[in-house]
Amino acid sequence: MDEVVPQSMDEKEDIESDLPKIAVFAGPRATILNTSAMTTSNKAREKYGLDLLTDDDDNPIGSGPLRPQRLATSATVYIEAFSAHPLEEQKSELYADPDGYIDPETGEFSDSEVSDGVPAYEVTLKPEDGLYMLPYMARKATGEPWDSDSLDPTNPTAEESRVPFFPDGSRLVEQIDRFGIVGGTNNSLSSQANFDYYRPAPPGGYEDGLPEEERTDEGDGDIPPETWGEDFFTYAPVSEDPTREILADATNEVQAAMDSTDYEGGFWLESSASVEETIYWINLLIDTKKPICGNGSQQSHGDLGNRGDRNVLNSVEYINSGIWKDDEGRDKVGAVLIQEEQAFTARDVEKVDDRPGGYETIGGHGGIVADISEERLTFVPERKHTWTSEVNVTSLPRHVTGVQKTSSGKFTEVKVEITDSYNKLQPSIPDVTITKGGAYSSESLPNDGEPDPVLMEDIERKLESEPLAGFIMEGSTPYGGLREETETALEKAALRGMPVVTTSRGRPGGFMGVNEGNLFIEGENFGTTKARLLLMAAMMKLGSLPVPSDPDNPSDAEIDAIQEKIAEYQEIFNTH
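^ that's the sequence the OP posted. Answer follows.
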C-alpha cells in the first residue's frame, strides 16, 4: 500500500482554489438558518440540582438534547467498540483489534485484554477538529434551566430573548459539512465548493456588535451594534418583517456580489413561506448570467425531518452541474427555488403546505425545471429573467414620473429617483397593495355603485405619501371579476396614476384574456403575490399612469394615453 503523505497547507489551498466559489445570502426569517430552542440538558440539570427533562411517563430522557459545540481543550475519550451499529459485532472477524479494554471494576483503560473488559477505541478530541455533538450545559442568569428562547415565553420581548437564528450562512454550512453524512462520509459541501457569506437582510444579528477579526461574512470593519427588527429579522420569539427599503439594499448587495468574477453562482436563504417571493424578485431585478437558487426549510435546522440541509446541498449540485448553461455559458433558466430535489422556476412556484412536498407549481403550466438527482432540465423557460429581464437593475432608468396630490387637492407629477449613476437601486420601491374580493360584501341593497370606501381611503393615503403606488385586485376565477363598487374604486385609482392588475382567485390554472379598452392590466396566470412583485418592478421601469386634468371627467384623448401606458405594462406582464 502506498504511503499516505500529509498535505501541506499550501497544497490544501491549491486544492481549494480549484473549487468553484458560491455566494451565500442570508435572508429574513429564514427557518433554514434557525435552531429550535436550546434546552438545558439533563447533564446540567443533574449537576445543578434542577428538575430533569422527562417523557410523558415522567421518566428522565437520558442526557437530553445534544447540540453542536466546540471543545475548550483537548480530551481523551474511549469509544465502545462495535457500538456504531447493532450488527457490527456479528462481523467482528472483519475488524481490526480495538485499541484496548476498559476494566469493568476500575474503569481504567488497558492496552491488553482484561477479564470481562469492554473493548474500546482511544481517541483524543481536539478543539481544532471542529464542532462536536455535546450536552447543552448553559442556564439562565437566574440559575434556572433554559426551556425556550425567552426568559418569559408567554410574553417574549427582544430584550429578554435569545436570537435563535444564525447571523449568516457560515454556521449552517459548517454543521452540514460536519454532521451531514452522504455516501458514508461528510464534507459534502466543502468537497464541492468554497463559500463566501453575505448578510443582505439577515435573520440573526449582533446586538453587541462584532470586531472585524471575528466576522464570518464578507465586509470591512467592525459590525456596529445591531437592532432586532431594524438590522435583522426573525419570526420567533419576536417577529419582525423587513421593509421595502431593506429590499432595495438587499437587491444592491446581491447584484454587487453576482457582478464579481469570483462566483459561479449564489443561493438565497429565507423563510419557507416567503422565499418564493424574494427569489422571483431576484429573478426580475438581478442582472446576472449566473444561476441563483432560493432555499428554505419547513423545519428548523437540526430538527427531525429537516430538509433544509439537503436543499443547500442540492443547490451546490445544481450550480456545479452546469445544466443551466446555454451554448455561451449563460444561465438560460433564471432564478430557481430548490426543494425536495427539484428546481422550480421562480415565477411558477408556491408554498401550499408545511408537509414534505409542500411546494407546487402554479398557473397550470410547467414549473419544475430540473430534476437535481438526474442533473437534467425538463424544459427551458420562455419568460424573461435575470440578464434578459427588462426590469433588472441595469435596465431601469435613473428617474420615472410619479403622482402626488397637493394640499390644495390638485394632482402633480413628481420625479422619483430609481437608480443612481452606479445602477444602484434607490429606496423608492413602489407601494403596491393586494386587495381581495369576495361574495356577500355589499353593505346595502340596492347597490348604489359608489366606490368602495376602504379602497378610496387607501387611494388617498397613497396619493399623499407614495408617488409610486398601485393595486393588485384578486377577483373571481377565472377572469378576475369584481364587485361594482370595487371596480369603480380601482378605476378611480387608475385615473389617478396608479396601475391596477387584476388576477383570479386562489391558484389560477389558466391565463386571463386581455380586455381591450379597460383601465386594468390583466394578470396572466399570476397569483397575487407574484403579480405584486412584477408590478413593483414594472413601475420602476415605466412610472405612474398619466393623470387626466380632471380625473373624474377624463377626455377620450386622456383615456387613450392611459391605455397606451397600460399596454406597455401589459407587455411586461405577458413576457416576465
